[in-house]
Amino acid sequence: MRSAIWRLSRALAEPARSLTSLKPIPSVASSHRAGLRFSSTVSAADLTFGQPVHETHPHLLAPGELTPGISAQEYADRRTRLAAKLPDKAIAIVAASDIVFRSGSVFYEFHQDPDFFYLTGFNEPEAVAVIGKDATGTDHTLHLFVREKDASAELWDGARSGTQAARDVFNADEVGDISQLKQTLPDLVGEASHVYTDITQPDTNQSALQRFLYGQSKKTTEFAELVGSSKVVRLRPTMNDLRVVKSTAEIDLMRTAGKASGRAHTDAMRQAWTREKQLDAFLRYRFVANGCDTLAFEPVVAGGKNGLGIHYIRNDDVLQDDEFVLVDGGGKYGGYIADITRTWPVNGNFSDAQSDLYQAVLNVQRSLISMCRGSANTTLDKLHNIAQTQLADQLRQLGFDMSGKNIEQLFPHHLSHYIGMDVHDTTGYSRRAVLAEGHCITIEPGIYVPDDERWPKHFRNMAIRIEDSVAIQEDSPYVLTTEAVKEIVDIEALRA
Q: Mind listing the UniProt keywords for this protein, alphabetically (predicted)?
């Protein structure tokens, strides 16, 4: 199976051909974008699509929604806002994610490219969107290239939406079969004043070896050669500006994910666990059973000194009765995530040392959450600096030597990151940006005490992190994950 990006690179290497005018296709589902077609020749409930639509999955999507909680109109408005940021005659090109195979024909769970999903709501691989201003300069045009319906392929891989649904459900102005991309795309690129895309940038999540083996460098070189270096502009900064401020609908989805995820954490605290793997399995099940679609990321379930590894995900050790377990995990709903970390005693009761260190971290976390207001005129970096100061003060009172840069040894990670469609959302967006209403972030102070004689003996090998997902409002924080208890008295009461 050829990827959409592979097809794109091959198409751009072809000589330019004229763009064939695509004929209107009768609508099979009500279009939700103002002014578009509302005729229907076939009931959508009798058809198959590559993802849920209201007519086939009314238990998941309300009328007018393209994905759970997000209307087709909101997707159209996002594209219009993107087009408004582009120069005249410029286009933006965004490709869907590829299917990633773990071995042979066995694939990993599909995760759509977040920029592509944000702009289209289309959740299938092998697709390309081309977006630009319309003729009036006040709206957008959407060219959407997708896999055509194919009974033989769908027998093995499941239903596809096809080009007809791309027009009538996903509201594309022009549609095309992704296999024909090379016949249509060069004209769009040739007529554009600028091409905003990230396809020319190698995937920073891939190693140099992966880029060599899978031809990433060749793809990006072909694209750059066709459009010219002066024509290509990175799309990521523009997309970050759009995505970093969440709409009411997006925040509602994150709150739904936060409720389900928070309840899973609290349910886990109610039970005694002897193995990290068992607790891991329970959380995976409860996130989905409570209403999430899938995991937001691979959970951390770290007993005792394993918690000193910030991203420990082996989750294969024995939980000791007199130690902490640190759990970092969350679910994803409607494309939006929750991020929660809780730390609690394996036996359900805090020792004096555990209580002292835990309360120190909790005091700081509560203080920092109170600052998550638009009116506070703060930034992620400012909050991090405050966290370092406050944690150092708390630790000093517990007998720690906090001279020099010792706080960086005990608190080695940043306090916060942006969240949304990804757990580390809008990668590259500045931590020095002033937080405003609609920004969604984590607040996660932590203390990690190595087995080193520099630190008080009774705290060594303890790792504590307390994390919540928070939406910035003008005058108050909106904590999205309150169902996960964190007060000492509440944690101990769960097994009382």
A: Aminopeptidase, Hydrolase, Manganese, Metal-binding, Metalloprotease, Protease
Q: Which domain holds residue 337?
A: 245-494
Query: Which residues, including other chains, have CB under 8 Å from residue 352's CB and lie 6 or more apart?
Result: none
For the chain (496 residues), the mean pLDDT of every run of 10, in chain order, is: 51 40 34 42 74 96 97 98 96 93 89 97 96 90 97 94 96 95 88 90 55 50 58 95 98 98 98 98 98 98 98 97 98 98 98 98 98 97 98 98 98 98 97 98 98 97 98 97 98 96
Q: Of 181, 215, 242, which one is at a domain's C-terminal end? A: 242
User: Which residue, chain included where needed, has tokens 């103002």?
Assistant: 34
Q: Based on the fold, state whether residues 221 and 163 are members of the same structural domain.
A: yes
Whole-angstrom distance, CA of residue 187 vs CA of residue 15: 9
- Is residue 235 domain-shared with residue 162, that is, in the same domain? yes
Q: Which residues have CB under 8 Å from 410's CB, separation 6+?
A: 391, 395, 400, 447, 448, 449, 455
Judge if 221 and 277 occupy the same domain. Answer: no
- Non-local (6+) Cβ contacts of 311 within 8 A are 300
In a domain, 39, yes or no: no
Instruction: Please check whether residues 269 and 229 belong to one and the same domain.
Output: no
Which pTM does this prediction carry? 0.90
Q: How far is CA 152 from CA 7, 45, 126, in A?
A: 21, 21, 17
Residue closest to 52 by CA, chosen among 117, 150, 114, 121? 121
Q: How far apart are CA 161 and CA 159, in angstroms?
A: 7
